[in-house]
Structure formats: C-alpha cells, structure tokens
Write a structure and sequence with these properties.
Layout (H helix, E strand, L loop, with lengths): L1 H11 L3 H12 L1 H4 L3 H28 L20 H8 L2 H4 L3 E5 L6 H14 L4 E5 H14 L2 H9 L3 E7 L6 H13 L5 E6 L6 H5 L2 H11 L3 E5 L5 H7 L1
Parallel strand pairs: 1-4, 1-5, 2-3, 3-4
Helix pairs in contact: 2-4, 4-7, 8-9, 8-10, 10-12
Length: 244
C-alpha cells in the first residue's frame, strides 16, 4: 500500500521515468536482488533518459523538419561529393554553438534537403532549437506579419532559434519586402544563431538573385563569409532509387 502511495506522489511530481523503473523492479526478480545504491542509480538514469526523450520530441515537433532524416544514415557515395570530415565536423554542432552558418548547394535531387534535415535532427539531439522553412514560404509569412501587425512578434520568435534551416533558396523571385526581411532575419542572428541554407543556385549567383546591390552586399557579407560550404554533385538520387 505504501509503494502505491509513493508511486502516485511520483506521478504527481511528473517523475515518470522513476515510476516506470520502479514498476519494472517490482516485476523483474533479477532487479530486486540489486543493492539500494544500484536501484537508486537506475531510477535516476531512467528519469534523465525520459526527460531527454521528452525534450527531443518537443524540439523535433517545433522544428517541423520536412523529412525525418537520421544523421547516421548519410550516403557518402564518391560521385556525390560529400566529404566525410566536413560532415563529421558539422554533426558535432560546434558551428551552431559558434553562431556560424552552413550552405549546401547542388542540382535538384542530390539530397540537399535530406542532409539539412539530418543536421537539424542532430542539432535537436544536442538540445538546440531548430526551425525548418522553405525560404519562399518564410518570406510570405513575414510579409503577412508585416500587414497584420504581428511582425515584431514573429521576428522575436525567429531570433530565439538556435538554427533556422532555409530550404530551396532562390527558387522564387525576391521581392523588395522580402529582401528587407531577409536582411533583418540574418542581422538578428549574428553572434546569436545559425542559418543552414540549401540551394540549387551556386553561391556566386546569389548576388544577382537578390537583385538590389546594396542589400545583396549586406546579406551575403553576413552569410557567406561565416559559413561552412558543401557543394554536392551527381544525378538525382530520387531517379537512381526509382531505377533500382
């Protein structure tokens, strides 16, 4: 009767990892033979793991990654041009801790979005807040926010993210408002957050894409010179899978 009361009190305190471990100890005879110190250690480990799993689930829901890509399942095919050492350095997430950026370029279908989402998932595992957005969709949302008066709130939310993934950079035309909001977004992240960009367009063509020279200089100066760069090549991986 006493243990049932204790378990209920643990549930009330939301110590669900400890509750689950105590329940396991009640039915597993091999665990009953452990010392008090060993049982206590297992309860603490179970609670910590439960909290870490809950935190990761919350961060991944918030990230809204386009694909659930595991960083361990990366394809290092020689024809793809992905360097193991470069990727290994990115997986540590030190670049996010240092508020640096990453740029992934290459033709359609070579896995830019997949790699970006894998790095996003890894960042969430490290406890980083992540948000995935297609660039065109994000700029549309910022224009709407400008019109309805919620722009300050939206900007503040974006500024809190450790990593923002901007997918499909340069697929849609850049508007005057879009250029301005992009500069504000990037400027807010200097020294306090990272950006990961994927694009079919080579970096040396981004200036022309942005359009307005002064804003293009400001935007690119804040992104490119503080970025790790991955240049993918090869045929579409989607076509290769369809042909197998």
């Amino acid at each position: 009767m006493l243990i049932n009361q204790t378990i209920q009190e643990l549930k009330d305190m939301k110590l669900h990892g400890i509750v689950n471990m105590l329940e396991e100890m009640r039915v597993n005879t091999s665990l009953q033979e452990l010392s008090f110190e060993e049982k206590l250690g297992m309860c603490v480990d179970a609670e910590r793991q439960t909290r870490e799993n809950r935190r990761l689930a919350r961060l991944l829901r918030q990230a809204k990654l386009k694909v659930q890509a595991s960083p361990e399942d990366i394809d290092f095919s020689a024809t793809r041009g992905l360097d193991r050492q470069v990727y290994g350095n990115l997986v540590t997430c030190d670049w996010i801790s240092k508020s640096l950026n990453t740029i992934i370029t290459g033709p359609t279908g070579v896995g830019k979005t997949w790699i970006a989402c894998a790095l996003g998932q890894q960042a969430a595992r490290k406890g980083k807040s992540v948000l995935y957005k297609r660039l065109s969709r994000l700029l549309e949302e910022l224009e709407i926010a400008f019109g309805d008066g919620s722009l300050v709130k939206v900007r503040a939310k974006l500024a809190k993210m450790d990593l923002i993934i901007l997918d499909d950079w340069a697929l849609a035309p850049m508007t005057k408002r879009g250029r301005h909001e992009l500069l504000e977004l990037i400027d807010d992240r200097i020294g306090s957050g990272s950006i990961l960009i994927t694009s079919q367009l080579p970096v040396d063509q981004w200036h022309e894409y942005i359009g307005e020279p002064t804003l293009a200089d400001a935007i690119l100066d804040r992104i490119v010179h503080r970025s790790h760069k991955i240049e993918l090549r090869g045929d579409s991986m989607r076509k290769l899978k369809e042909s197998i």
